[in-house]
């Protein structure tokens, strides 16, 4: 039986190999991550990155916005340590503010960021949890701000019935949680990607005025959402 690991344990244990694996073919590799930088408005001065990990998406962002101020949240300390080492100069200049905490517990202050991004992290959460996060993201955005999400979503181009695939992922997670008597309050690593139409609906339900699919590569999808 597949033993589920707590979310932070899972990523802490894999932080050393993370960059090598995720810059190659996983989720469209670095190309999909770089799309995020290209979609940020030129006027972006500060951004919040949810599940920033080792900061693979940051290189293209710093290339395009050398002065940008980044706040990054992640529950896996080893991933953040890796990031600090890679972006030593920006970190020491105070351009990167890192918080080792869950984005489910973060205090999203009203109208604080020009942009919010999340890259390959939200496919572990339910519709309800995500819709709450999206409401908080929207609240934290300045007027005219954008939220860019790059994530693993179920492709209708490759699957006949994407909804039944999504349902199967959530059902399997429930079975595993019960079988392993997992603590209901903790987050475990198990992929539960959603269909693209469900993703878009959650974002509109959270109040975004416009949501568009900007990039597809297999299951990797990038959405741009306007406050
Ligand atoms: C697949 S990695 C993506 C890292 C980076 N954004 C990238 O694309 O390379 C997912 C990251 O999300 C973090 N994560 C998962 N759930 C989280 C949560 N609730 N709060 C903060 N970070 C979380 C994990 O620790 C991990 O570093």
Topology:
Blueprint: H1 7-22, H2 29-39, E1 46-50, H3 58-64, E2 69-73, H4 77-86, H5 88-92, E3 96-99, E4 113-119, H6 127-140, E5 141-152, H7 162-179, H8 196-205, E6 210-217, E7 220-226
Parallel strand pairs: 1-2, 1-4, 2-3, 4-5
Antiparallel strand pairs: 5-7, 6-7
This protein binds S-adenosylmethionine.
Describe the 3D structure.
This protein has 8 helices and 7 strands. It is α/β, with parallel strands linked by helices and about 230 residues long. Helix 6 links the parallel strand 4 (about 115-120) and strand 5. A 7-stranded mixed β-sheet has the order 3-2-1-4-5-7-6, with helices on both faces. The mean pLDDT is about 95. The protein binds S-adenosylmethionine.
Short description:
The protein has 227 residues and is of the alpha/beta class.
Features:
7-stranded mixed beta sheet; alpha/beta; 8 helices; 227 residues; binds S-adenosylmethionine
Shape: globular
Total beta strand runs: 7
The CA-CA distance between the termini, in Å, is 43 Å
Largest sheet: 7 strands, mixed
Strand content: 15-25%
* Class computed from helices, strands and strand pairing: alpha/beta
Average predicted local confidence, pLDDT: 94
Distinct ligand kinds: S-adenosylmethionine
Q: N-to-C SSE series? A: HHEHEHHEEHEHHEE
Q: How many individual helices?
A: 8
Rg calc? 17 Å
Strand order in space, largest sheet: 3-2-1-4-5-7-6
Low-confidence segments: none
Helix amount: 40-55%
């Amino acid at each position: 039986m597949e033993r589920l690991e707590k979310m932070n344990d899972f990523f802490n244990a894999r932080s050393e190999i993370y960059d090598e694996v995720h810059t190659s073919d996983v989720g469209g590799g670095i190309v999909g991550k770089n799309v995020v930088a290209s979609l940020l408005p030129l006027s972006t001065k500060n951004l919040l990155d949810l599940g920033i990990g080792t900061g693979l998406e940051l290189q293209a962002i710093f290339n395009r916005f050398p002065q940008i101020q980044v706040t990054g949240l992640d529950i896996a300390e080893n991933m953040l340590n890796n990031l600090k080492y890679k972006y030593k100069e920006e970190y020491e200049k105070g351009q990167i503010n890192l918080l080792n905490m869950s984005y489910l517990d973060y205090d999203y202050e009203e109208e604080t960021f020009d942009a919010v991004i999340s890259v390959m992290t939200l496919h572990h959460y339910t519709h309800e949890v995500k819709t709450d996060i999206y409401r908080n993201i929207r609240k934290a955005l300045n007027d005219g701000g954008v939220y860019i999400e790059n994530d693993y979503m179920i492709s209708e181009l490759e699957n006949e019935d994407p909804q039944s695939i999504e349902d199967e992922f959530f059902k399997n997670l429930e079975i595993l949680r019960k079988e392993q008597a997992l603590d209901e309050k903790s987050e475990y690593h198990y992929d539960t990607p959603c269909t693209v139409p469900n993703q878009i609906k959650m974002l509109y339900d959270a109040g975004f005025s416009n949501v568009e699919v900007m990039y597809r590569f297999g299951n990797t999808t990038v959405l741009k959402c306007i406050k």
